[in-house]
Input
Amino acid sequence: MSSKEWPLWEVFIRGKQGLNHKHVGSLRAADAEMALENARDVYTRRSEGISIWVVESNNVFASDPSESQEFFEPADSKIYRHPTFYDVPDGISHM
Amino acid sequence: MNEAHVDFVLRIADDSLILGHRLSEWCGHGPILEEDIAMTNIALDLIGQATSLLNHAAALQGEGKTGDDLAFLRFDRQYRNLLLVEQPNGDFGMTMMRQFLFDAYRTILFERLQSSSDEMIAAIAEKSLKETKYHLKHSSEWVIRLGDGTEESHNRIQESLNTLWRYTNELFYADAVDDEMRNAGILPDLSELREQWEKTVNHVFDEATLTIPTNNWKQEGGRKGMHSEHLGYILAEMQYMQRAYPNMEW
Output
C-alpha cells in the first residue's frame, strides 16, 4: 500500500432499534468524519441503517488463521456447552 | 394561472434540476469510489426535488403539461435557475465550492419555505430540507478539508472561490415576482437571508483559511432567463432524446 492512500476503515451498521451493529464492509477515508459520511453514502442508500460505527482497520486486532486449531477446534467436541438437553416448555418462542 | 406563482416555483425547481444534472456528470468520474457515490446521491436528491417542484409548476400552469414537459421541452430563456448552478464542474474542489455556496443558501431557503401558504411548497421544503442539510454538511467539510489542506489544495480551492464568488449576489435576487409571492404568503419573509448565509459562509471560510475576493464584480440574469453560454450545452445533452424522439419513454 502506498503511503498516499487513505487509511482503511471498517463499517458497522445497526439495522434497527434493538439489533447489534453488524460489520458490513470497509472503505477508505482521510479521517473519521469522512469515513462516517462515506459509510452513510455507500452502505445506507437503501435505508439499511439507523446508526453507523466506523473503526480504523488498524485498530482491529484479529485472531491468527494459523492458530485456528487451538483457538476454535477444542469447542467442537463440547456439545454439553450447548443448551440442547432441555425440553423447551410449550409456549416459549424464539428458542 | 398565476404567472408569478409559476415563475417562483420554476426558480426553485430549475436550481435543483440544473445542479442535479451538473453533479450527475461526475458519475463514473469521481476522485474516489465513495465520492462518486456521494455526488450521484446528491444529484439524485436534487433531481427528485426538481421532479416534485416541476410537477407542481405544471399543475399550477393548468395547461395539461407534465413536469417532464417542463424539464425537457423548454428553451434556455425559459429556465429560471441561478447562473451559479450551471457553471462547469471544473475540478473536484470547484464542484464542492459551487455546492457549498448553493447549499448554504438552500438550507436557509427551505427552512423558511416550510411555512409557505402554498402547502405543496411547504411539504416539498420540509422533505428536501433533510437532504439539503446533509449536502451542506458534506460540501462544507470538503471546503474546510481542501482549504486547510495542502498548499496545492488550498490554492486550487481559493481559485474556485475567486471564480464563483461573482455569482453569489444572485442568490438574493428579488423582483416583482418575490413581492407578489410575499404578499400572497407563499414566500415567507426572506430578510436576513443574506446575513444568515454570510454567517455560514464566513464561518466555514475562516476554518478553511480562505479569503473572500475583494473584486466585487457581480453577475446575474438567470432568474430572468438570461444565462451563461454553459446552459445551452447542458440542455442540448439533457433534451436530446425528447427532441429527437418526441414522447419517447423508457
